[in-house]
Design brief:
Layout lengths: L2 E9 L3 E3 L12 H5 L2 H5 L3 E5 H8 L2 H4 L7 H12 L2 E4 L10 E4 L3 H11 L3 E4 L3 H9 L5 E7 L7 E2 L10 E8 L5 E7 L13
Parallel strand pairs: 1-6, 1-7, 3-4, 3-6, 4-5
Antiparallel strand pairs: 2-8, 7-10, 9-10
Protein backbone atom coordinates (compact mmCIF):
# COMPACT_ATOMS: atom_id res chain seq x y z
CA UNK A 1 0.00 0.00 0.00
CA UNK A 2 1.18 3.52 -0.76
CA UNK A 3 2.22 5.97 1.96
CA UNK A 4 1.57 9.72 2.20
CA UNK A 5 3.72 11.88 4.51
CA UNK A 6 2.77 15.49 5.14
CA UNK A 7 5.79 17.81 5.44
CA UNK A 8 4.49 21.10 6.81
CA UNK A 9 5.90 24.28 8.32
CA UNK A 10 3.80 25.66 11.18
CA UNK A 11 3.99 28.44 13.75
CA UNK A 12 4.20 27.90 17.49
CA UNK A 13 0.54 28.88 17.78
CA UNK A 14 -0.52 26.26 15.23
CA UNK A 15 -0.90 28.15 11.96
CA UNK A 16 0.25 26.88 8.56
CA UNK A 17 -0.50 30.23 6.90
CA UNK A 18 -0.37 33.66 8.45
CA UNK A 19 -2.88 36.51 8.12
CA UNK A 20 -3.72 37.29 4.48
CA UNK A 21 -2.60 33.72 3.60
CA UNK A 22 1.05 34.63 4.16
CA UNK A 23 3.40 31.65 3.65
CA UNK A 24 6.82 33.31 3.44
CA UNK A 25 7.56 33.40 7.19
CA UNK A 26 9.22 29.98 7.79
CA UNK A 27 12.99 29.87 8.21
CA UNK A 28 13.89 26.97 5.91
CA UNK A 29 17.67 26.75 5.82
CA UNK A 30 20.20 24.12 4.78
CA UNK A 31 20.42 22.59 8.23
CA UNK A 32 16.65 22.12 8.31
CA UNK A 33 16.46 20.51 4.89
CA UNK A 34 19.84 18.86 4.57
CA UNK A 35 19.29 16.03 7.02
CA UNK A 36 16.23 14.90 5.05
CA UNK A 37 17.56 15.14 1.51
CA UNK A 38 18.21 11.39 1.32
CA UNK A 39 14.65 10.74 2.44
CA UNK A 40 13.26 13.08 -0.19
CA UNK A 41 15.40 11.38 -2.84
CA UNK A 42 13.64 8.11 -2.00
CA UNK A 43 10.18 9.61 -2.57
CA UNK A 44 8.30 8.43 -5.64
CA UNK A 45 5.97 11.42 -5.88
CA UNK A 46 5.79 15.00 -4.58
CA UNK A 47 2.30 16.43 -3.95
CA UNK A 48 1.39 20.12 -3.96
CA UNK A 49 -1.43 22.60 -3.86
CA UNK A 50 -1.20 25.22 -6.58
CA UNK A 51 0.32 28.11 -4.62
CA UNK A 52 3.01 25.98 -2.98
CA UNK A 53 3.85 24.38 -6.32
CA UNK A 54 4.20 27.75 -8.03
CA UNK A 55 6.60 28.97 -5.33
CA UNK A 56 8.74 25.86 -5.89
CA UNK A 57 8.52 26.05 -9.68
CA UNK A 58 9.63 29.70 -9.66
CA UNK A 59 12.96 28.81 -8.05
CA UNK A 60 14.11 25.19 -8.23
CA UNK A 61 14.15 24.51 -12.00
CA UNK A 62 17.12 26.83 -12.55
CA UNK A 63 18.67 26.89 -9.07
CA UNK A 64 21.38 24.37 -9.96
CA UNK A 65 22.61 26.64 -12.77
CA UNK A 66 23.56 29.43 -10.36
CA UNK A 67 27.36 29.29 -9.82
CA UNK A 68 27.00 31.01 -6.43
CA UNK A 69 24.52 28.52 -4.99
CA UNK A 70 25.61 25.97 -2.39
CA UNK A 71 26.13 22.26 -3.21
CA UNK A 72 23.11 21.37 -1.07
CA UNK A 73 20.77 23.54 -3.13
CA UNK A 74 22.21 22.07 -6.32
CA UNK A 75 21.38 18.59 -5.08
CA UNK A 76 17.90 19.58 -3.93
CA UNK A 77 17.18 21.28 -7.26
CA UNK A 78 18.14 18.14 -9.14
CA UNK A 79 16.03 16.02 -6.80
CA UNK A 80 13.04 18.34 -7.26
CA UNK A 81 13.25 18.32 -11.05
CA UNK A 82 13.67 14.57 -11.40
CA UNK A 83 10.92 13.52 -8.98
CA UNK A 84 7.43 13.16 -10.50
CA UNK A 85 4.95 15.65 -9.08
CA UNK A 86 1.19 16.10 -8.79
CA UNK A 87 -0.29 19.55 -8.30
CA UNK A 88 -3.91 19.85 -7.19
CA UNK A 89 -5.62 22.88 -8.70
CA UNK A 90 -9.00 23.86 -10.06
CA UNK A 91 -7.48 26.72 -12.08
CA UNK A 92 -4.09 25.50 -13.30
CA UNK A 93 -4.30 23.68 -16.62
CA UNK A 94 -0.73 22.59 -17.33
CA UNK A 95 2.56 22.47 -15.44
CA UNK A 96 6.13 21.71 -16.44
CA UNK A 97 9.01 19.98 -14.72
CA UNK A 98 7.69 16.43 -14.60
CA UNK A 99 4.36 17.58 -13.14
CA UNK A 100 0.79 16.46 -13.74
CA UNK A 101 -2.21 18.62 -12.80
CA UNK A 102 -5.15 17.03 -10.98
CA UNK A 103 -8.35 19.07 -10.99
CA UNK A 104 -11.40 18.03 -9.00
CA UNK A 105 -10.54 14.38 -8.30
CA UNK A 106 -7.94 14.79 -5.54
CA UNK A 107 -9.51 12.27 -3.16
CA UNK A 108 -10.08 9.65 -5.84
CA UNK A 109 -6.56 10.08 -7.25
CA UNK A 110 -4.76 9.68 -3.92
CA UNK A 111 -7.06 6.92 -2.68
CA UNK A 112 -6.23 4.91 -5.79
CA UNK A 113 -2.48 5.58 -5.47
CA UNK A 114 -2.49 4.50 -1.81
CA UNK A 115 -4.54 1.37 -2.45
CA UNK A 116 -3.09 0.18 -5.77
CA UNK A 117 0.60 0.98 -5.48
CA UNK A 118 3.46 1.05 -2.99
CA UNK A 119 4.50 4.61 -3.82
CA UNK A 120 6.16 6.77 -1.18
CA UNK A 121 4.46 10.17 -1.53
CA UNK A 122 5.39 13.47 0.15
CA UNK A 123 2.74 16.18 0.52
CA UNK A 124 4.15 19.70 0.88
CA UNK A 125 0.84 21.59 1.16
CA UNK A 126 -0.53 24.20 1.31
CA UNK A 127 -2.98 24.35 4.14
CA UNK A 128 -6.17 23.85 2.11
CA UNK A 129 -4.78 20.80 0.32
CA UNK A 130 -3.46 19.34 3.61
CA UNK A 131 -6.88 19.89 5.21
CA UNK A 132 -8.57 17.93 2.42
CA UNK A 133 -6.12 15.06 2.86
CA UNK A 134 -6.78 15.00 6.62
CA UNK A 135 -10.54 15.15 6.22
CA UNK A 136 -10.47 12.06 4.01
CA UNK A 137 -7.88 10.15 6.11
CA UNK A 138 -5.24 10.20 3.35
CA UNK A 139 -2.20 11.01 5.50
CA UNK A 140 -0.12 8.20 6.99
CA UNK A 141 2.70 10.22 8.56
CA UNK A 142 3.36 13.80 9.61
CA UNK A 143 6.65 15.70 9.67
CA UNK A 144 5.77 18.97 11.35
CA UNK A 145 8.37 21.75 11.50
CA UNK A 146 7.37 24.08 14.34
CA UNK A 147 8.90 27.57 14.05
CA UNK A 148 9.54 29.76 17.11
CA UNK A 149 7.16 32.57 16.21
CA UNK A 150 3.55 33.50 16.91
CA UNK A 151 1.49 34.53 13.90
CA UNK A 152 -1.56 35.47 15.95
CA UNK A 153 -3.97 34.40 13.24
CA UNK A 154 -4.28 32.87 9.81
CA UNK A 155 -5.07 29.34 8.65
CA UNK A 156 -4.58 26.63 11.31
CA UNK A 157 -2.82 23.46 10.24
CA UNK A 158 -5.34 21.21 11.97
CA UNK A 159 -9.01 22.07 11.38
CA UNK A 160 -11.15 21.70 14.50
CA UNK A 161 -13.03 18.80 12.88
CA UNK A 162 -9.94 16.61 12.33
CA UNK A 163 -9.35 13.75 14.78
CA UNK A 164 -5.66 13.66 15.79
CA UNK A 165 -6.10 11.12 18.59
CA UNK A 166 -4.50 8.35 16.51
CA UNK A 167 -1.12 10.06 16.07
CA UNK A 168 1.89 8.27 17.56
CA UNK A 169 5.15 10.17 18.06
CA UNK A 170 8.11 8.59 16.24
CA UNK A 171 10.90 11.07 16.95
CA UNK A 172 11.80 14.72 17.56
CA UNK A 173 14.69 16.74 16.12
CA UNK A 174 15.84 20.27 16.99
CA UNK A 175 17.83 22.71 14.85
CA UNK A 176 20.09 25.70 15.45
CA UNK A 177 17.31 27.96 14.13
CA UNK A 178 15.20 26.79 17.13
CA UNK A 179 12.85 24.96 14.76
CA UNK A 180 11.57 21.67 16.18
CA UNK A 181 10.66 18.81 13.86
CA UNK A 182 8.11 16.29 15.14
CA UNK A 183 7.54 13.03 13.26
CA UNK A 184 4.20 11.28 13.85
CA UNK A 185 2.64 8.16 12.37
CA UNK A 186 -1.09 7.63 11.99
CA UNK A 187 -2.09 4.52 13.93
CA UNK A 188 -4.77 2.49 12.09
CA UNK A 189 -8.16 2.63 13.81
CA UNK A 190 -8.13 -1.15 14.24
CA UNK A 191 -4.87 -0.91 16.26
CA UNK A 192 -5.91 1.82 18.70
CA UNK A 193 -6.64 1.07 22.33
CA UNK A 194 -10.36 1.23 22.99
CA UNK A 195 -11.68 2.52 26.31
CA UNK A 196 -12.73 -0.16 28.76
CA UNK A 197 -16.44 -0.76 29.04
CA UNK A 198 -17.76 -0.80 32.59
CA UNK A 199 -19.55 -4.02 33.48
Amino acid sequence: MGNVTLWMQMSLDGFAEGPDEGIHWPVVDEELCGSFLDELRSADLFLYGRRTYEIMANFWPTADADPAISPFYVEFARCWKSTPKLVFSRTLRTAGWNTRVVGTSLVEEITALRERSDRNMVLFGGAETASTFMKHHLIDEYRLFVHPLLLGGGVPLFPATVDTSGLQLVDIATFDSAVVQMHYQQVPVSSRCMPAVAS
